[in-house]
Amino acid sequence: MAARMIRASNDPVQPLTADRIGLTLDGTPHEGLRGQTIAGVLLAEGVLSWRRTSVGDSPRGVFCGIGVCFDCIVEVNGVRDIRACQRRAQDGDVVRTQHDELPEVTS
Ligand code: FES
User: Fold this and answer.
1) Atom number in ligand 1 closest to CA 65
2) How many Cα atoms within 13 Å fall on the side-chain side of residue 78?
């Protein structure tokens, strides 16, 4: 089975009330539907990852999708460590990518 992605705007199955909202990710505007999570908006717009790990520089986005793994964390309106898969997107949200910072090691 091949992976298949349909942008929300092209999905033939539309919600009864398609109330559109907009957010920005690092200044880039994205559009979604009221009720979607931030991760839902980004995935529907084709954004599959939005941060990289400090070890290995691996891309991260949604892994579990249920609020357990914290792979999807972003900064939303100045608040860090928000799980994009759990936070319902609000019109005008300013979302910024957030990267791991290694703690300072003291000996
Ligand atoms: S994808 Fe796992 S907490 Fe969001």
Assistant:
1) 1
2) 0
Q: Which tokens is 75 given?
A: 């900064």
CB of 40 sitting under 6 A from ligand 1: no
CATH topology of domain 20-96: Ubiquitin-like (UB roll) (3.10.20)
Q: What is the pLDDT along the chain (107 residues), one digit of tens a residue?
A: 566 777 777 877 776 667 899 999 999 999 999 999 999 999 999 999 999 887 888 899 999 999 999 999 999 999 999 999 999 999 999 999 987 665 577 76
One-letter amino acid identity for 68?
Answer: V
Could you tell me the residue ranges of all domains in the chain? 20-96
**All residues at 6 or more sequence positions from 16 whose CB lies less than 8 Å from its CB, including other chains:** none
Whether residue 81 has its Cβ less than 6 Å from ligand 1 = no
Q: Judge if the beta carbon of residue 45 lies within 6 A of ligand 1.
A: no
Distance from Cα 66 to the centre of ligand 1, integer Å: 6
